[in-house]
Design goal:
The complex is a heterotetramer, with two copies of chain A (212 residues) and two copies of chain C (215 residues).
Chain A lengths: L11 H10 L4 E4 L10 H6 L3 E6 L8 H8 L4 E4 L2 H13 L3 E4 L13 E4 L2 E6 L4 E11 L5 E2 L8 H7 E11 L19 E6 L2 E7 L5
Helix pairs in contact in A: 4-5
Chain C lengths: L5 H10 L6 E4 L18 E4 L3 E5 L20 E8 L2 H9 L5 E4 L3 E3 L4 E2 L15 H7 L2 E5 L11 E2 L12 E5 L3 E4 L6 E5 L5 H8 L4 E2 L4
Classes of the chains: A alpha/beta (212), C alpha/beta (215).
Amino acid sequence: MISGFGDAGVPNELIDALVEGGATDLTVICNNAGAGETGIAALMKANRVRRIICSFPRQATSHHFDARYRAGEIELELVPQGNLAARIQAAGAGFGAIYTPTGFGTLLAEGKETREIEGRNYVLEYPIHADFALIKARTGDRWGNLVYSKAARNFAPIMAMAAKCTIAQVSETVSLGSLDPELVITPGIFVQKIVECAGPSSAVRKEETCSA
Amino acid sequence: MISGFGDAGVPNELIDALVEGGATDLTVICNNAGAGETGIAALMKANRVRRIICSFPRQATSHHFDARYRAGEIELELVPQGNLAARIQAAGAGFGAIYTPTGFGTLLAEGKETREIEGRNYVLEYPIHADFALIKARTGDRWGNLVYSKAARNFAPIMAMAAKCTIAQVSETVSLGSLDPELVITPGIFVQKIVECAGPSSAVRKEETCSA
Amino acid sequence: MQRLSRTAIAARVAKDIPEGAYVNLGIGLPTRVADFLPIERDIFLHSENGILGMGPAPAEDDVNWELINAGKQPVTLLAGGSFFHHGDSFAMIRGGHIDICVLGAFQVSVTGDLANWHTGAADAIPAVGGAMDLAIGAKRVMVMMELQTKSGESKLVETCSYPLTGVACVSRVYTDLAVFDVGPAGASVVEMVDGLTLDALQDMTQLDLKWAQGQ
Amino acid sequence: MQRLSRTAIAARVAKDIPEGAYVNLGIGLPTRVADFLPIERDIFLHSENGILGMGPAPAEDDVNWELINAGKQPVTLLAGGSFFHHGDSFAMIRGGHIDICVLGAFQVSVTGDLANWHTGAADAIPAVGGAMDLAIGAKRVMVMMELQTKSGESKLVETCSYPLTGVACVSRVYTDLAVFDVGPAGASVVEMVDGLTLDALQDMTQLDLKWAQGQ
């Protein structure tokens, strides 16, 4: 899983490290499929992605994805954005499946189980789990607590809950107790590693064993 | 729906107004069934509750509930606390039903539909909607944005999302823009009325038409 | 007969958005509706990427790329606005908390089916975004579009030929020639531009149209 | 043979809670485990009413009734702690994010079934709280209880006679006489108090017991 909506909240430095690390045959869960040359587009360009689950792959400059897709080199599972969020949340919260009204009667529900409940039609959708979530936040502490910046929050808090190992890049780390406990958006229990990325340097601020 | 866990976060002043208002034959959705003489216990004492959906009715001083229950005057639907939260959330988020692992193989799942998904057993549970949610928060503004105090937050944010009309009592109201937009826990869209209760006086701070 | 410009359609939609409404404006043309919402009305704009209380575009030297709308354009936040994650944002949509959603469309059927995400072309790269959630989640879904395609075919149709976004979800359609109510009882005309007749409109759309109740 | 006191059982459980663990301590007896967690270990206590990083009880003049644990007792918050709503709190539990949960029990079966919410008595007012969620949600569920009822019956049983809280959910049982592993392969003894023999323990429990692997 990779957080971000458009360019806001995309953990570019973590993705760069992923490209450098050489991981391949990845399944990427993300709202978009990358635009321009950096971030997810760099993963696409390096041909590391076998499958992508997303809501909005096509963008003005999604040429790296477009080329892989047209060449049949990447498998696309298109999911309505709210169902994408709901399925990620279902994974994080331990549900087996959910009945969602979104997509009923459309191509994206073809072949899926449906049910009428209280006069309304629903589609059965299953959780999306991940081995790793790469997310971006504004500030973190050594327990892994995170706060975000504006609309860069988007998918990060729910992805952090749905992955076996969540790695967060933060712009700054603060000492324990500096974050208002009422304001913590992602409690540290959902974050296994924190990397502070400030300009060219980076430093690990939390490092917990992951089962992924 | 009435927020609160134990005494923390119970909107006592709103409940008092409910008792005074004379509403009867109520279905109450709440974690507890009241203790002592105030709050939900006062509703029980006045015999206004026909049915209660909760996880933990029995407490050391829940004598008003206990008496009504033993007299067969109140119907009890006992729901595991996490399923209670999940069903309230499902209502707020527009799901038709959810498969939850909690309660499988127990008395509380008797007669309910079950399903094995990826080797694990789940129970099908339906959303709990409400006409009204009475909740308590620390601070609000005239748009209905709310922040809470410590563990008094508990069920309030999810109940606010699941009711047609959410009425919040707050200890203080602040001018628009005073609440940090990153810190707003309940965005105003989920709150139809705000009443400031400071000591003996109270004042309405938001008043929106409700469909309930 | 004078067709309404796109801008004029946006202005017409704005007239129907009441005080206190929570509104999501779809990406593209519907975004322009914001320009016509009267300042004296408290109207709360929602963006599915986690913003409530969205304000107008910022000055060029005040752009923050972490404060963008669903169309990825820079926006501002009004006093009283708030941020939240995608889960909560789509709970607002799917849970029926958004009063009005304004969307563009390829086609709308007389019973309110919406087609706006996919042309059905075999070589198109599909993308759906939040369209399907918005279509079935908002209390009231309004569509704004030109009534006819460039080749003169009606986009208000008996049955959509493009892949659906949602079934029976649209309640009103604003076009350059007329405003229609759609739903279980079929399509009816709320108003039309000067010089147009019901007969001419029926001819253009190939639909059996009547005036809406009370018009 | 010296039975462990309740306090000693709590201390024994605490020994098995590793550095970095996220832990929920059930109401009642399990709460006492907190008193024996070594200060030098970073252990994160979760309370299902919306607290992570719970600290010890406050001084009497520093009680805040909006900061209570699931047993409704006043607590404190450590630096680094956080508050959240019941939805997120039970997502932590049900979603498998809590490493260890310690619960009391009426009965535990050799395959790990747990009965701890209801005696089955016809006139009892039932109350379940978060027990069923904790039982099936935490990665590892530990039970602490006395091995026998007051009348001498074993509470570790072949099959629970009390209504179940969860099926096949317990992995280890700490008692005043012995520590057991339970699960698909049945019950095995991890350790027992000095002076007790496996034969005597089998006799008390009426169970076919063996030593756990590696003991």
